[in-house]
Amino acid sequence: MSVEVVVIGDEIVLGLITDTNSSHICRRLVEYGQEVVRITKVGDSLSTIVSALEAASSSDVVITCGGLGPTHDDMTREAVARYLGTPLQLDSKALHEIESMYSKAGRVMSEANKVQAMIPLGASYLSNQKGTAPGLKFTKNRTTYFCLQGVPKEMEWMLETHVVPFVSQFDRSSAILHRTIRTVGSPESVLFEKTKPVIDRFRSNLSIAFLPQMTRGVDIRLTSRLHEEKQALEIIQSAEAAFVSAIDGSFRAGVYGFDNDRLEDVTARLLFGSKKTVATAESCTGGLIAHRFTNVAGSSSYFIEGVVAYSNEAKIRDVGVPAELIEMYGAVSKEVAVAMAENMRTRAGTDIGLATTGIAGPGGGTDAKPVGLAFVALATKEHSIVKQITPLPFGIDRLSFKERLSTFAIDLVRKHLMDIRS
User: Fold this and answer.
1) CA 20 to 30 Å from 180, out of 133, 238, 287, 312?
2) DSSP label of 332
3) Which domains, ranges and CATH numbers included, belong to the chain?
């Protein structure tokens, strides 16, 4: 089966918002052995939408996203009517459903919303329980079209309710399996060199892609398109084991997870299991480490406290860094980082204290301490460690600097917990 996606909206083609709908559709359909062969993005132009529907007519299934709202720029219904050569007509069931949505919310439907119940003759409306705009389904020649909403939460519900049951009826063209190996601590080029023998061994049976994320590590995606699912799974599992062995053998605990694992999730599981607690004293990361730690449900059992001590005065007042230490070594130094971590651990009464200090830029750097220099310290009752983060050769913006440093800090906690567990 061939599937195409048409994403509709001026806000998409003008770059005002990022299209996440098409990537979500692709990920879900591939689980059923169906690959999207083309993604088209068009603006809110009637003729352009009609042309996109016509251009996609060679595929078995076409899924559109967007253009089903109640305003003048929502053109999908009218475009479908023109494409089918039929008029729009008020669908009483669709109207009743929209009115019921407003009634349940204790609101009165506006007159403008009635347009959402105008369904092209020859198309059927698709119930939407997450919003007021019904979807559309119709067939022209051999192609089945699904018109879904642009709002991601609505689109995702509609996809699961109406599209997935439809595509799951069809035989898989092949067993398309994915596995993502998530790594941290090594650049893409070095990781590639260390795993090249594994790549050479499996590249005839797998698609292998390196997906670098400058601030959060490198993902390695393995994809199998074999007809036999059992064989595809065996090859994926064998390749995964070989990659993990090669990476962890070259970089200490370089693989932190798989597929949708986040570094903070993996670290949280170790904190849960060890019953250890952590407190943070952040300067240049501005609270981002605390934010990432607390993105995990149940984090209150391990994350006790976080302080953003951005100024020297705050480091002295709120974290207890001796003023003479800052005077002697500077705020961006291993000595101050260690003092921040140790004092934060003691003050919060936690097992682990974690601290960051650095120069985010673009100003403030010197020859001795350039922009991008940072220190991360981890303190326990028994000992403290501090790591120096050197600037990247091509520079980095402030947000990416914070992301990169927060990743390094959380990974330092992960590796510490793995050490004490073993």
Assistant:
1) 287
2) S
3) 3-167 (3.40.980.10), 175-258 (3.30.70.2860), 263-421 (3.90.950.20)
